[in-house]
Amino acid sequence: MSIIETERLILRPMTEADGEDVFLWTGDPVVNRYMPYPVHKNVEETRVWLRSLQGKEDEFGFCLKETGRLIGAGSIKYREEFDAFEIGYNLNRDAWGKGYATEAGKALVRWAYEQKNARRFMARHATVNTASGHVLKKCGFLFSHYGQYSRYDGSETFDATYYTLHLD
Ligand SMILES: CC(C)(COP(=O)(O)OP(=O)(O)OC[C@H]1O[C@@H](n2cnc3c(N)ncnc32)[C@H](O)[C@@H]1OP(=O)(O)O)[C@@H](O)C(=O)NCCC(=O)NCCS
């Protein structure tokens, strides 16, 4: 299992024991507004999700080095339909605006480049969710095209901006 260290963060696999901390964002409708997964109604739903991650390598919890506190999570997964690794992230509301998503995003790209031989990356965000676009640009992503994406349960479709990053 991989552990990634950045200046202020430790990126590590999450376990069921993280349920209470993770539910702080998976259960927050503001954080969830543009995420594809349905907002979690209780901590047990979060634990079910955390159990489903066991043995997977592509989803990381972001912990503050200083306190050890888990403040968010992100993933970097190969998507056959794009022939690229897709990056995604979400953070506790009280951790927004401090550069953590950018720091973690850069580290995830580097990890996939080094450990998974990833060279082609993509990402998408609801076009109105401009903060996510800022993060992607600061991670080196470039605008690709406009499109849409839907929540996993089909309940909502968002107008989206797509980005790519191609490394040598
Ligand atoms: C999107 C998200 C991950 C950004 O995390 P973050 O740690 O605050 O991001 P960073 O601090 O690294 O960078 C944010 C950038 O967006 C800007 N930003 C932050 N909040 C913003 C807002 N509400 N509107 C516009 N820009 C905003 C910041 O100024 C910064 O850009 P700058 O350095 O050029 O000024 C966080 O807001 C979040 O978890 N949102 C909910 C989940 C989500 O939408 N995830 C992405 C789905 S595609």
Task: Offer a concise description of the structure.
This protein is α+β, with helices and mostly antiparallel strands. The protein is built from five helices and eight strands.
Uncertain residue segments: none
Distance between the termini: 26 Å
CATH superfamily: Gcn5-related N-acetyltransferase (GNAT)
Share in helix:
25-40%
Number of domains: 1
Largest sheet composition: 8 strands, mixed
CATH class: Alpha Beta
User: What's the overall average pLDDT, rounded?
Assistant: 97
Per the principal axes of the C-alpha atoms, what is the gross shape?
A: globular
Q: Give the topology string: H per helix, E per strand.
A: EEHHHEEEHEHEE
Number of helices: 5
Radius of gyration, in Å, reads 15 Å
In the CATH hierarchy, the architecture is: 3-Layer(aba) Sandwich
In CATH, the topology is named Aminopeptidase
The percentage of residues in β strands lies in 25-35%
Annotation, overall tally of beta strands: 8
The class by helix and strand makeup works out as alpha+beta
The bound ligands are: coenzyme A
The neighbouring-strand order within the major sheet is: 1-2-3-4-5-6-8-7
